[in-house]
Every structure is written in C-alpha cells, then in structure tokens.
Amino acid sequence: MLTSDPWLILLVVVPLLAAPVCVLVRNATAAWVIALAVSWSIFAIAIKLLIQVLEQGEVFYRIGGWDAPWGIEYKLDPLGAFVVVIIATIGAVVIPYAKKSVENEIQKERIYLFYTMMLLCISGLLGITVTGDAFNLFVFLEISSLSSYVLISMGQDRRALTAAYRYLIMGTIGATFYIIGVGLMYQMTGSLNIADLSTIMPAVADTRTVLAAMAFLTVGISLKLALFPLHMWLPNAYTFAPSAVTAFLAATATKVSLYVLLRIFFTVFGEVDLFATFPLQPVLIGMALAGMFLASLSAIWQENLKRMMAYSSVAQIGYMVLGVALATEAGLAGGIIHLFNHALVKGTAFLAIGAIIYSTGAVTLRDLRGIGKSMPLLMAAFIVAGLGLIGVPLTAGFVSKWQLVTATLEADMWPLAALILLSSLLAVIYVWRIFEVAYLRDSHLPPVKVIKKLPMSMLIPTWILALASLYFGTHATLTMDIAHTAARQLMGGM
Q1: Phi, psi dihedrals of residue 4, rounded to the nearest 5°
Q2: Which of 4, 64, 173, 378 has the highest count of CB atoms within 10 angstroms of its CB?
C-alpha cells in the first residue's frame, strides 16, 4: 500500500538547507553542532521511515503536488529504506568522530567548509536513494560527487589534490555516461519517472537506442561504483582524503552506486528479460571475480593501511556485484546484505585507521610496531573489522558471504562458491599482516609511541560500528529479512 509521508522530503531538504547555514556562520564549532544536529535528526527520520515501510508498505511524496509521471516523485520501498538507514547511520557516527579528527587534519579556517560539504554529500546520497525520477537522480549524483571532490581535496598530503582531480575526471565520465543513457531512454519512452519507465520499456527494449542506453548506464554506474577495472580513482581518493571523509565515503558512496545499479537492472528494466537480452551475467561475473582476486592481491602488498583497505573495498564490491549477477532472489539478497554489512565493517576499519593517525601520526605498517599494546581497545575494534572482511563466523561479513555461497550453490554454480571461499583466504593474508605488526613483530622492542591521547569522541564511534558488526553477525534475522524482501520485490519486476 502506498502512503504519502512528508518526512520523506525532509531527509533531503534538512541537510541541503543546513549546508549554506554552515557557510554563513563561518565557525568550526558552530558548523559541527549544526552538522551533528542534522545527522542525528536524519538518523531518527530514517529509522522511522524504515519501520513504516516494513509495516505499511511503500511511502511517497510528490513535489509540488504534481502526480507522477508529470511531476517528480520521491518514493521509498524496503531496499531504499535499507540504504537510507545505512547513509544516516554512518553520518550520525562519523560527524561526532570528525570533530577531533578534522581539527587534527584540516586547517582551522577551512573546517566549516568541511561540514558544509559533508551535509551536501549526505543530502545528495539520500536524494539518489529516495528519488523516483531518473534525471533527478543525476542531479543528486552530481551534488554528492562535487561535494566528495572537495572533501577529498582537503587532505593534508598534496597528493589529495591529485586524487580529487582524478576522481573528478572519472566521476565526470561516469556521470556523462549515465545522463547519455537517460537521454536515450527518454528519446524512446518520453518519460523520466522510474516506475513509468519500467512499464514502457518492454515495448522498446529490442531497439538499438535502448541497447545503447543500457550500455551507457551500466558503464557510467560501474565507474561510480568502482567496479574492477573501473576502480582506478578509488585507492588514491581513500588514501589521501581526511580520515573522516574516507570512512564516510567507503561506507556509503559505493553502496549508493550499487543501489542505482539495482534500480536500473531490476526496476527500470524490470519488465524486460534483461539477462537474456544483454550478455550481462558473464561480463558482471568476470568483473566481480577479477575484483575479488586482483584487488585482494593488491591489498596484500600495501604498506599504507588506508591504501590496503581501499583495495579491500574494491574486492568487496566484487562480492556485491557477484550477487547481482546471479539474478536470483538468493543472490540479490546476498548482494544487498553484503552492502549493509560491508558498510559497518569498512566504516569500523577506516575510523580505526583515522584514530591511529590522530594518536601516532603514522599510517604505514612499518611504523606501527606493537600498536596492539599501545592502543589495545582501538586495535581490538580494528581486528573485529578485519575478521568481518575475512568472513569469520559471528561477524557480519560471515552472514553475507555465507548467503552468497548459498546463492551460488542454489544456482548450480558451485565453482563460484569455491572462488568466494578462496578469495576470502586472500583477506586472511592482509588482515594477518596487520595483526602480526600490531601484536607479534619485534615483541622485545618498545611499541610505537602514542603522541596524543585518543579522545573518547573517536573511540566510541569506532566501537559502535564494531559492535554493530558483531551484533548483526549473531542476530542477522532482521537484516536478512529486509534483504530478502527487497530482493523479492526486485525480482518480481522481472
């Protein structure tokens, strides 16, 4: 049942209007307070909407009172509500963490601009998730992307500017491909409303124009998603961005891009036998497997912790896309649940790395000897994240990888199940490297010196995500039910 709910528009409008207020106050503390209030408000609204969607069905809001498809409609179903909660949760955790981290890494006179860009980025990501209009999605995609470029460029290292520029170039190409695809669809259908497109598309699905549109959309979104081998912007962006930015983007931006890919494949083209019409499955499976193995191998050889986790993110994106490529309810559920679980796990890892940088000034393995003894609570959270990346039982990562293995076996693709398990062993290697340096290497020598005491405002958010990873690794009924409900609705469109 569809119900109208004005809270839906507030998800986007509140952070969008709060951003220029941060510019007007031009004060770091005041901007942080505004961002904190907004992020917690958005979290509360997101939880309310998720409960409402699960209990009552889809909710919508029509801009200006214009009925779709003539007007722009915001709509939230179980999948969208799930992603909205991820964005809101990470934002609500990262903003408190950011106060001390940002003061340590960004010049004081530019801090208010950091919170301005963070609010714009949150607004853009939420807008992408709730909009029911393909062109409006492009607008929000650009809002989130442009703010991300600025956030990355604020890093201490001069290479942050180069990383932001590379991301800008690749992101612009991805956005251009996406809007070309939308334009070609509009040429053939005369509509931009996603729900309306899904009903019109079967009549024109065999035309060259729609075939070209599908190709442009897939490549454009894959660039934004950092799907191997279109990931080259991601390692530097994550490595040189401020720590709070890396944690936020790693846990949200690529997840929202995967959401867009699901919307295109299973909603816009939901009435088309997509995987029979296009050679998508072998291409996606090949790219996913390449990412899972080659990115994990790259992670093994990294000395910089941020870069190591960045390549790990590319590998984890491969797992998500593999679930999508199976095009079954079980496979989609695996991809969706991994989207959620990886946000928790990788958010924990990057928050922990940021805390290490704050307290020691170091980020490379060779400089972090014995840090498990110097900072035991923090490194315990990091190890929880590492176990989640491997997929060890009792962690959230195990739940999603087990679901993906089950999905491949149900699809009678047992070699893929074996490859999932084999690629997880590569994660053991790079996580073990961290564990060895933190706890075992040169144990007779004094551990790395802690220059600054770690504030609780950085340790508590890190442990919130770490405990959430453990909780949803042992109490996965709710998240799995949501993932299966979302997958069932997506598959119902095919």
Answers
A1: -85, 135
A2: 378
What DSSP assignment string belongs to 177-197?
HHHHHHHHHHHHHS--BHHHH
Cα dist. 159→111, 239, 241, 339, 487 in Å? Answer: 19, 9, 9, 29, 41
CA distance 58 to 272: 23
DSSP summary character for residue 268: I
Ordered alpha helix ranges (H), 391-455: 396-410, 414-435
- Give the N- to C-terminal CA distance of the chain in Å, as an integer: 20
Q: Which residue has the tokens 């912007």?
A: 233
For residue 109, what are the CA distances in angstroms to 27, 114, 304?
8, 10, 28
Q: Give strand pairing partners of 131.
A: 74
The two tokens of residue 393 are 């039982």
Give backbone dihedrals phi and psi of 202, rounded to 5 degrees, phi first.
-55, -30
- Specify the DSSP class assigned to residue 292: I
Pairing mode, if any, of strands 73-76 and 59-62?
antiparallel
Q: Is 376 exposed, middle or buried (0-12, 13-18, 19+ CB in 10 A)?
A: exposed
Please tell me the distance from the alpha carbon of residue 22 to that of residue 144, in angstroms, as a whole number. 17
pLDDT digits (tens, 9 = 90+) for 211-221: 888 889 999 99
* Gap between the Cα atoms of 294 and 287, Å rounded: 10
Domain ranges of the chain: 279-494
> pTM (2 decimals)?
0.91
Tokens of 120: 């714009």
The pLDDT tens digits of the residues spanning 391-408 come to 888 888 899 889 999 999
Cα 445 to Cα 282, 371, 375, 437, 469, distances in angstroms? 52, 12, 16, 12, 33
